[in-house]
Amino acid sequence: MALLAKAPARKRSSFPWLAPTENSDAHDPSTDLQVLLKKERARSDRSGLPFSQILFECSEAGRSVFDHTLRLVYRRIRLTDEVRLIGDGKIAVVLPDTSSEGARALADSILEALQANDQSVTCKLYSYPSMRFNNEH
């Protein structure tokens, strides 16, 4: 009779806004984002430069608003920035070498463009090393 090995317990995420789910695996977009954030954190620790993340939540707004938000994000980001779709209408934008003020400026420009079209999404900002800056729009 073969014994089934118990799955190892999942480690808690270093990033409180991105907790792993019970069924996440290597192909899970949230896992990909966790790896990216860990890489940026290590880079930030080595260089002393901050990084930020903007999380746009479009689940309540519908598919057309999600698509429009995604187009606006891609039009405004730099080549070094990373975008991840993490399900349920969420768009994560990781901004290397970007302070909370820089992230706020980008988020505000995208939110203003959405509001000009009578579209609304919520947005959360996170910055490292402070991690205390999180502002909901």
Description of the molecule:
The protein has 137 residues and is of the alpha+beta class. Helix content is 36%, strand content 18%. It has a four-stranded antiparallel sheet with strand order 2-3-1-4, with helices on both faces. The N and C termini lie far apart (57 Å).
SSE string, helix = H, strand = E? HEHEEHE
Radius of gyration: 17 Å
Give the biggest beta sheet. 4 strands, antiparallel
User: Could you tell me how far the N terminus lies from the C terminus, measured between alpha carbons in angstroms?
Assistant: 57 Å
DSSP summary, beta strand count: 4
Number of helices: 3
- What oligomeric state best describes the polypeptide chains here? single chain
Which structural class do you get from the secondary structure elements? alpha+beta
Mean pLDDT: 81
| Portion in beta strands | 15-25%
Coarse morphology: globular
Task: Enumerate the strands of the largest sheet in spatial order, edge to edge or round the barrel.
Answer: 2-3-1-4
Low-confidence stretches: 1-26
SSE layout:
Elements: H1 29-47, E1 51-57, H2 63-76, E2 82-85, E3 90-96, H3 100-116, E4 122-128
Antiparallel strand pairs: 1-3, 1-4, 2-3
Helix pairs in contact: 2-3
Structure described in brief:
The chain has helices spanning 29-47, 63-76, 100-116, and strands at 51-57, 82-85, 90-96, 122-128. The chain is 36% helix and 18% strand.
Structure keywords:
137 residues; alpha+beta; 4-stranded antiparallel sheet; 4 strands; disordered N terminus
